[in-house]
Amino acid sequence: MFNMSSYSEWEKGIVNRNYHIFKYLLNDARVKRIIAVDFLPFTLKRAIRNFLKNILCDPKLRIYPNNTKQDKKKVIYRDLTTKCTQISDKLFIFSTIDSLFSSNRVIKKIRQVLDKIPQLPNYPSTKVSRIVWSYFPMFVDYFDQLDEDLTVFDAVDNWLEHPSYLKYQERLKKNYQIIAQKSDLIFTVAESLVEFFKSLGREKNTYWIPNGVDVEHFHLTQINTDPALVEEIPHPIIGYIGTIQSRVDINLLEYLAQKNPDKSLVLIGPIWPEFLKKIRRPAIEIRLKKYKNVYFLGRKSYQESPKYIRQFDVAIIPHKLDEFIKYTHSLKLLEYLACGKPVVTTPASGAEKFSHLIYIAQDYRDFNEKIQKALTENNPELVRLRLEAARENSWSLRFEKMMELILQMLNS
User: Fold this and answer.
1) Bigger pLDDT: 91 or 61?
2) CA-based nearest residue to 8, from 78, 74, 56
């Protein structure tokens, strides 16, 4: 699995679609082994970070199958730029910075690692298949290089539209074309991504499988909600959780702060470095922190986030409408619903599916009016319906659909 994150980031509670699918694979008895390839750096800054966090340091064993002993951790391969750590009989973490120099070196070392791992036996009823599953469009040199039986690409957003990757557009255009031509299966987070791959000539075996939510994680955590987490912040709380980056409409947030002096605007999440280059940190602080009802609480881990969301009186998604947004599907919308919270959002990909349960605002004034409406109309029956909707969109259902399609293709 070529990941869009590093295992060490997941251990710290920084999660995404890639993490959720990885964790389900890890706990699925049909999956016998995973070689997880950490984010392959293509900049010097990221290479240094990978080297320090993933190659010099060891995994902490926080992400683990519930029924497996944690007694297998050992390094099975190491050189100056690469390390592979065996976590268990099932899981191996591969980290390298060789992608900064040569894609061929990455493939060569993965093959060396595969040679060091004992081969799995074929089982009486079926043979063992090798699947290459990628979330990382910056690297596509694995096709026909790893003796794979099946290749899967899971498209999370359209990186061509991401402001952090503008300088890599030519490389991404070429890579997406290769992915469209060579992948056996393509999953997409947004319906518009199916159309995107059609524009590249890909007509078959491309499936829209939206994000899901771990309902138990968000629902059960409410039992342990600690009001002291935000005890100094007066209610009602208008809350947002997520990275503060270019997709967040700072002008809208300032408008809401001005129009709601009797309410608290709570922002939970880090400020994206690329965003700071365009809107300086002092500018953000001057524009928003000058309001006494605005609170920046910083990054909170995935494990902590339900306890904070439970304190929101209304949850918001104040995203700009641009080309990038139409290729996304909001994880936080489902997480808000799993906590039973009323949600006010700008129009976003997939939001219309929940229009009977959430409030979709068309402009700043409408957004503010719908916050007032959400606070007034909230009741136990709506909370129940939100939880029900979250259960109908669980990660377990998404994962089973993916596995069903994979097994159908392997069997054919």
Assistant:
1) 91
2) 56
Each residue of 335-385: pLDDT tens digit?
999 999 999 999 987 888 999 999 999 999 999 999 999 999 999 999 999
**If we measure between CA atoms, which residue out of 256, 390, 372, 239 comes closest to residue 309?**
239
What tens digit of pLDDT does each residue of 317-337 get? 999 887 788 888 888 999 999
What pLDDT is attached to residue 276?
A: 47
User: What are the contacts of 168-176 at 24+ separation with CB within 8 A?
Assistant: 168/42, 168/138, 171/138, 172/137, 172/138, 175/137, 175/138, 175/139, 175/140, 176/137, 176/200
Peptide bond into 236 cis (omega under 30): yes
The pLDDT value recorded for residue 153 is 98
Please enumerate in sequence order all residues whose Cβ is within 8 A of that of 203, keeping only pairs 6 or more positions apart, or say none: none
The torsion angle over the Cα atoms of residues 238, 328, 46 and 50, rounded to 10 degrees, is 90
Fold classification of 7-212+395-411 (topology level): Rossmann fold (3.40.50)
The yes-or-no answer to whether 7-212+395-411 and 215-391 have a common fold is: yes
Distance CA 70, CA 171 (A): 40
Out of 3.30.70.120, 1.20.1250.20, 3.40.50.2000, 3.10.580.10, the CATH code matching 215-391 is: 3.40.50.2000
- Domain positions in the chain: 7-212+395-411, 215-391
Predicted local distance difference test score (pLDDT) of residue 65: 56
Tens-place pLDDT, residues 186-200: 999 999 999 999 999
**pLDDT given for residue 230 in this prediction:** 63
